[in-house]
Specification:
252 residues; 9 helices
């Protein structure tokens, strides 16, 4: 067992991708996609350790070339959660943050806010992040997952469909997107991993619905910082535009 730490960040990295081949090694503004994710996460102040959990030596070699700590995992995992569970099995951590490798502009303060929720509220077993949708095109994009919460900011439902449905025009429309980052207590990570696959999860192809359908609560915090999940060539272009804009702004 390794030395006890409070919060570990894990970036699960799968080499194969059905929608955009080998996307994590695709270059954006001179760096592979996964390097952007790692560099952003490295800036988070509440992570005691950060590792990349991968399934292919090509990712391992690239990740180590830019200084990342890497754990090799099985090629048979069906989800990032399974990969993370293997990677942290022998690490004595209290909280595990699942940071998506294909969200290269995730702001470090979003990661810290999620970690802070888990640190300050020991009763929270699982948490994630939402952001108000600003672009109309995201509302109807099935790759942009939407969510609704109760009055205590626990998730009611996640969907690829725009939710809620506004029956008439008497209420101002407001939609929130789900950012692909999760936090769990280490104990709950294994509870979640061992839950049976569920109807809603399979219908939407959204793993987090497995927890809700089993009766568990997911705390949701809100961020003002945008993030883009890369699933298509168009997403890559959006990310490149954002990064170039940031570079130009910082150069002034």
């Amino acid at each position: 067992m390794q030395n006890n730490i409070d919060v570990i960040g894990v970036i699960p990295a799968r080499y194969e991708s059905s929608r955009l081949a080998h996307k994590l090694l695709r270059e954006v503004c001179g760096k592979p996609l996964i390097q952007w994710a790692w560099e952003n996460a490295s800036k988070a102040s509440l992570l005691d350790r950060l590792i990349i959990a991968c399934d292919n030596v090509k990712i391992k070699e690239v990740a180590e070339s830019f200084g990342a700590k890497v754990v090799m995992t099985s090629t048979k995992h069906q989800s990032g959660t399974d990969r993370i569970a293997e990677a942290v099995r022998d690490i004595d951590a209290k909280i595990v943050i699942n940071i998506q490798a294909d969200e290269p502009i995730m702001h470090q303060s979003t990661i810290d806010s999620l970690a802070r929720e888990m640190i300050n509220n020991p009763a929270t077993l699982m948490a994630t992040v939402r952001k108000k949708i600003e672009a109309d095109e995201d509302t109807n994009n099935p790759n942009v997952v939407k969510l609704i919460c109760d009055k205590n900011d626990f998730a009611i439902y996640f969907s690829r469909y725009p939710i809620p449905y506004y029956r008439d025009g008497s209420i101002e429309k407001k939609y929130y997107k789900h950012l692909g980052i999760y936090a769990y207590t280490k104990d709950f990570l294994y509870t979640f991993k061992n839950l049976p696959s569920s109807f809603l999860e399979n219908a939407e192809r959204l793993e987090q619905l497995r927890a809700i359908e089993a009766g568990h609560k997911i705390k949701v915090i809100e961020t003002k910082f945008e993030s883009i999940g890369v699933d298509t060539e168009e997403d890559l272009q959006k990310v490149e535009t954002v990064l170039n804009e940031r570079k130009s702004k910082n150069a002034k």
